[in-house]
């Protein structure tokens, strides 16, 4: 989201006043993106033509930031400074910044018109909105800002450098390689840099917490007791829907993980619908993950142990897309409960390309709709019989 506009600019201009909101300490991720050799791009051009050239590129940068919920704090003529995690808190601000940086770099790689350098760093800053009659600035101050700027200057064209602090905030979803160290000054501690190779919209979930070496769970006993009671009632045939609502980082995933770790949850089949906050619900990664979760539930209940060793194409033998009976049962359930095209959608989500002529004629949005219908229709098959959900 862009920095707020100075909607009261005329009044401020008349009074000559500068308005500031109260400064806040926040943990954020800062992104700097700069157009490489921008001076040569505008050299010898008419000012209006030069301005339009740079604005077109800057629009690519701001679109990438806004796509992942960031704030464009400053437009710097031939680049931008963006902040993720402020003014509104985001528990996955570091990953959002990496996804935006990846989109910026890919746009530059796909274009013959410009090249980009991007730097990202995470940490504590002091943030404040400042308004005058001339401009509005979302001001952030702290070492994190300077590290991000230095990383941007150090990056090679069409590449992204990020700090160790950013990497540590993204437990899954990033592929990086070491890129040396840098110093803000001769007396400062060296900063380790990493080159971003790939980023995916993934985040730490309750299922990750089940397999992680967790710290001691303290508090939240009333909430845990309420959820455990709902499980017991569901086991007796009284189903319900529970929704956890809370500020980012307050512990919703940890509470869910503790519930799933409890003895009361052992008798239930768990179907995960990973609605990543960074992507739209219909994006393929989310739907495929949910389909595989359902297939694993069916495989585990009915198909026995998986074969050992990888397949020639590199997939493991317990990949549910290789399990013919599981695919057939889920596809049949989706078709029976959701219609023929819902069944075809489930087939494709499980890695079995559809040859149905109607399916081939659908656009991506229609396929996404049928995919959601197929997943919902297949859930009774995945959790039917003796399994409970």
Q: How would you describe this protein?
A:
Helix 10 packs across helix 11, helix 11 packs antiparallel against helix 12 and helix 11 crosses helix 14. The two termini are 39 Å apart. The chain is an alpha+beta fold. Helix content is 42%, strand content 18%. The longest helix is centred in the N-terminal third of the chain and has 21 residues. Strands 1, 2, 3, 4, 5, 6, 7, 8 and 9 form a 9-stranded mixed sheet that branches.
List the topology elements.
Blueprint: H1 9-15, E1 19-20, E2 24-35, H2 38-42, H3 47-67, E3 71-75, E4 79-84, H4 93-109, E5 116-131, E6 136-141, H5 143-154, E7 159-163, H6 164-168, E8 174-182, E9 191-199, H7 206-211, H8 221-235, H9 252-261, H10 284-302, H11 324-338, H12 340-349, H13 357-360, H14 364-382
Parallel strand pairs: 5-7
Antiparallel strand pairs: 1-5, 2-4, 2-5, 3-4, 5-6, 7-9, 8-9
Helix pairs in contact: 3-4, 8-9, 10-11, 10-14, 11-12, 11-14, 12-14
First CA to last CA: what distance?
A: 39 Å
Compute the CA-based radius of gyration.
Answer: 25 Å
- Percent helix range: 40-55%
Main sheet specs: 9 strands, mixed
Question: Brief overview, please?
Answer:
The protein has helices at about 10-15, 40, 45-65, 95-110, 145-155, 165-170, 205-210, 220-235, 250-260, 285-300, 325-340, 340-350, 355-360, 365-380; strands at about 20, 25-35, 70-75, 80-85, 115-130, 135-140, 160-165, 175-180, 190-200. The protein is built from 14 helices and nine strands.
